[in-house]
Design a protein that fits this description.
- Two copies of one chain form a homodimer.
- By secondary structure, chain A is α/β, with parallel strands linked by helices.
- The first copy, chain A, has one domain: Rossmann fold.
- Chain A contains seven helices and five strands, in the order βαβαβαβααβαα.
- A five-stranded parallel sheet of chain A has the order 3-2-1-4-5, sandwiched between helices.
- In chain A, helix 1 packs across helix 6 and helix 6 packs across helix 7.
- The longest helix of chain A is centred in the middle third of the chain and has 16 residues.
- The interface between A and B is large, with 45 and 45 residues.
Chain lengths: 233, 233
């Protein structure tokens, strides 16, 4: 089996990506970053998903991106709520974490090089509402070119680096359908950018809204919400 | 003044690079990574250099690259000693840390984006003995292209990312001459890959040998060695 590093945040997209990597025959090495995200609940989700999926190894690294600041996801700006997702705001959302995917991929690249593989999976998505520059196909292509020059395996021509982004052109509903077909247990995942106590989703941030829209389009209840009381308005 | 992020390891090259950035009129924000390097002495050197240079800010981040393994510099392989630097070994040395410069640059990129600058300085060098793939000019050019696509500032065309590598084509002697002309105090720097107690250089690893050769060519004593006793053979 070919090894692959899979970036696993604990969200719906990365859980689906992990299942796809396994379905394609890769032996997954899951990598999670504890970067000071306010949605720490996703770290527990990542651990649950890794365990349930039987990955070869699950590594959680610590790197405190709050030291840089500049993002709603690391605490110094408020997470937007109740936005109309059909009317995208101008520019890049405040939930963008500066260079986060570049940092994540660099860590994945380091581990891939030690494992002797050039295959890296990540759950980025360019459709639905995103607006993050580091989720675009042209970004990933440029990253691959850079990574081939950066590494021993690239320089010595053993391997080229391939970034697998199987969700990049899918809608949230298509992602959920694919995951359900592969047996992903979405009850284990967390999407909310601003969860309350015990990781309870706020249901009002972009991530919660996108997730709800996806399950509604699929016509299937979100297993994460089963058993949670309806929030009081 | 234009802000610039300067990668500062605490070694001779990065101290010189910092002095060059200042001489070119940039306001330096120095970034150091505590990654589990066996030559931890360089962290104290970085702090001393930052203080002596009057940087705008010095940020030391923690990220334990020992979790990945695969390098002599993070502990699981022996640091080569007494090699003949005029006869380069085949391939990439074991002191190569997988994807280290890519990780360092990604962190610099995140900070640069928050600071609102596209200028990043790093002390990589493609001459002398190196052999690290992530020190080559073509790697840096590919990184710049990727970084422009990765970031808010690149995507919104405020700024493009520029990696300044002023030492890339210089020999160690040329670097030292330049630094001495700029008033760099090399007594504050550390180069050894495998220092003994109290950060004492081994004088036998590649880094020590290159440094000694550089000072010899300049015809100037290494101020770091002043006061240290000659090692018993």
């Amino acid at each position: 089996m070919t090894k692959a590093v899979v970036l696993l945040s604990g969200g719906l997209d990365s859980a689906t990506t992990l299942a796809i990597a396994q379905a394609e025959g890769y032996e997954p090495y899951a990598l999670t970053l504890r970067y000071g995200q306010r949605h720490q609940a996703e770290l527990a989700s990542a651990a649950r998903i890794a365990r349930a999926s039987g990955v070869a190894e699950h590594l959680t690294l610590d790197l405190d991106l709050r030291r840089f600041g500049g993002s709603a996801l690391t605490g110094d700006l408020a997470v937007p709520k109740d936005r109309d997702l059909d009317t995208p705001e101008a520019g890049i959302p405040v939930t963008y974490v500066p260079a986060r995917n570049t940092i994540l991929l660099s860590l994945a690249l380091a581990w891939a090089e030690v494992l002797g593989t050039g295959d890296i999976f990540l759950g980025v998505n360019a459709l639905d509402y995103s607006g993050y520059p580091d989720c675009r196909p042209e970004y990933l292509a440029a990253y691959e070119r850079m990574a081939d020059l950066a590494t021993r395996m690239g320089a010595e021509k053993h391997r080229t680096i391939e970034l697998h982004a199987p969700l990049i052109r899918l809608t949230k509903a298509q992602i959920i359908r694919k995951g359900l077909a592969l047996g992903v247990d979405y009850a284990l995942t967390t999407s909310c950018y601003d969860p309350g106590t015990a990781g309870r989703p706020c249901r009002r941030c972009d991530a919660c809204q996108l997730r709800a829209k996806g399950f509604a389009e699929v016509g299937s209840p979100d297993p994460l919400l089963a058993g949670l009381a309806t929030p009081t308005p």
